[in-house]
Amino acid sequence: MAEMTDAGAGRPTGPRLPSLRMVVLAATGQDLRRCSHCSFCSDALKETAGLDLGLEMVLQLAVINDEEVLTSRTLWSDRALDAARHACTSGLDIGAVLLALRDEARQRGLTEEVK
Ligand code: SF4
Predict the structure, then answer these.
(1) Whole-prediction pTM
(2) Between vectors from CA 5 to CA 4 and to CA 11, what angle results, nearest 5°?
């Protein structure tokens, strides 16, 4: 049987990874679809110098399963992590979400250092 490859890239594909939304749900119980897109969490992150994404965008990239979020500077920023705690109007624990995404990034061999 022919080995499956990424379209056009010629790389062998491994086992299908779970979506980032499901990873977060399994690790934290937080369903990212509860986000009401109010932007409060992004506004709570006052100092954005050196960061590439607002907190709301971090969550939305996870919802659409965009692996780019796993190497974003915002995900790995302790300043963003501090701002994320208790910052959600919909009751999401964004700090727990960020930590779950960091853990998933490490498992996939991705960190901010590889950017
Ligand atoms: S504060 Fe909560 S509901 Fe509002 S955008 Fe951020 S994650 Fe979504």
Answers:
(1) 0.85
(2) 140
How buried is residue 52: exposed, middle or buried, by Cβ count under 10 Å (0-12/13-18/19+)? middle
* Locus of tokens 């994320």: 84
Question: Who has greater pLDDT, 77 or 10?
Answer: 77
Q: Residue of the nearest CA to atom 8 in ligand 1? A: 35
pLDDT at 87: 83
Q: Residue 112, Cβ neighbours under 10 Å: how many? A: 16
Closest CA to 64 of 17, 21, 18: 21
> For residue 59, which atom of ligand 1 is closest to its CA?
7
Pocket test for ligand 1, best of 24, 32, 33, 36 (most atoms within 8 A of CB): 36
Separation of CA 113 and ligand 1 centre (Å): 27
DSSP three-state, residue 5? strand
pLDDT of 10 over the 70 cut: no
